[in-house]
Amino acid sequence: MAVHSTVKMATAPAALAARETGALTPLPSANLEAREIRHWLEEQLARPIDASATVVVSVPAPQVDPETLLEVSGRSMGVVWDPADGLAFAGVGATHRIELEGPEPFARLEQRADEVWSQLTTSLHPDCLPVAPRLYGGLAFDVRSARSEPWQEFGGGCFTLPRIGYTSDGQRASLSLAVRGEEIATADQRLAWVAELDTVRSLLQLPRDLVKQLGERSEVLAIHRPSRAEWDAEIEAIVEGIRDGAFQKIVAARSSRVELAAPLETAAVLRRLSQGLRSSTRFAFCRSHSTFIGATPERLITRRGRSIATEALAGSIASGAEGAGILLRSDKDLEEHQLVVDELVRRLGPLCEHLDVDPSPRVRELRDVLHLLTPITATLAEPRHVLELVEELHPTPAVGGVPTEIAMQWISRHELFSRGWYAAPVGWFDAEGDGDFAVALRSCVLRGAEAFLFAGAGIVGDSDPQLEYTETELKEQALLTALGA
């Protein structure tokens, strides 16, 4: 199946400000820098390019929160990727969109991405932050239930090369435009794209008090959680299976539906998620009517050349003055955590010539909950695409169980909702096979005036249903606060 462009524009695109931002008017771009950037853009887009090829041009941009691009763009499809220790990114639209359904999604994704990379060129302004183009997206936890409620717009997986992208390292920022040769075949088309990018750049420069205000919370009208009886029965069944030797660990999850007085804007929720969660990766994947959004504390895999990094994150307790000490002495949590460490080492060990594991876990502190954390770094024995590593690691025992296949079968048969992209890999990769993926935890789907929240807990032999339920409530709290509860 060929990679396709989701935005076919044979005519000039409408100005973003007039189309989507109401009373906002972009600031005049009459200064020398803006004129020089426009002239440079015109030159780059006028270079010869095949109709089916893609060019990504990047120019300097002001420093803003990445989610600001979502506010000023007005496009329904968008992405935000904001890790604690990497480049912040936001993108809108999709020049290329790779949809994934059915078996072997990783191999098909890599193959179709190679088709994009093979016909892609880049052009960086001299003052621009140098960043290679990336495909951003995610995959379903289990493709067998990928189209169930509320995941109809997300499916088995989707990765995009955004039409307009914003990247920042905290010191410098860039704004990029990705267009196909057929979209810049005429002078009028090229000038229209230059005007579009110039409009976005001008809107990003607006004083924050002039940008549409999206910070008000919507009132939470009701929270619908599954019954405690259903949860207790599920946990007791898992514990019984562990005691009978069927498996060692199952991660049980549940979903809650939140009724809101009014729809919430993605940017507003992301900003509130940043409070007290700076050690997490904020993310959002926007569709026409739904947004999958969250702030996950768990890295799945990072690859830079042959250097990789992952982490075991399992074992939790409520934040508090004594919480860290209690967690580090908890036999139940230490057992749950060690199962994850051992399995990650087992999977990565054969692929690596050198692997470092911290000898004992540390505590990762979030606003409402503490986790046991063991970082793992390694050097690959030979180059491997980050997608190969994602496929090797997902699902980790922190979201599936031990043994993996039996745990996945149990979850598929007994869980009362579809996980969709929850607890699944989300992130990015580039043409070199480098990338950064997280496990999509502390997340929800926003759809109109409702939100679907997801939370889970690792169950081992001495797990108590009431304590595990309390743990899932703690994990929901950051999102509920961001939603206005």
What does this protein look like?
This protein is 29% helix and 30% strand. It is an alpha+beta fold. Strands 1, 2, 3, 5, 8, 9, 10, 11, 12, 13, 19, 22 and 23 form a 13-stranded mixed beta sheet that branches. Strands 4, 6, 7, 14, 15, 16, 17, 18, 20 and 21 form a ten-stranded antiparallel beta sheet that branches. The longest helix is centred in the C-terminal third of the chain and has 19 residues. 48% of the residues are buried. The N terminus is likely disordered.
Task: Write a brief caption for the model.
The protein has 485 residues and is α+β, with helices and mostly antiparallel strands. It has helices at residues 16-20, 32-45, 68-73, 105-118, 187-204, 228-243, 266-273, 323-328, 331-348, 386-393, 404-414, 465-483, and strands spanning 54-60, 78-82, 88-92, 96-99, 120-124, 134-139, 157-161, 164-168, 173-180, 220-224, 249-260, 281-286, 291-296, 299-304, 307-318, 352-357, 362-365, 369-380, 401-402, 425-430, 435-439, 443-447, 450-459.
Summarize the SSE layout with pairings.
Elements: H1 16-20, H2 32-45, E1 54-60, H3 68-73, E2 78-82, E3 88-92, E4 96-99, H4 105-118, E5 120-124, E6 134-139, E7 157-161, E8 164-168, E9 173-180, H5 187-204, E10 220-224, H6 228-243, E11 249-260, H7 266-273, E12 281-286, E13 291-296, E14 299-304, E15 307-318, H8 323-328, H9 331-348, E16 352-357, E17 362-365, E18 369-380, H10 386-393, E19 401-402, H11 404-414, E20 425-430, E21 435-439, E22 443-447, E23 450-459, H12 465-483
Parallel strand pairs: 1-5
Antiparallel strand pairs: 1-9, 2-3, 2-12, 3-8, 4-7, 6-7, 6-20, 8-9, 10-11, 11-19, 11-23, 12-13, 13-22, 14-15, 14-21, 15-18, 16-18, 17-18, 20-21, 22-23
Helix pairs in contact: 2-5, 4-10, 6-12, 7-12
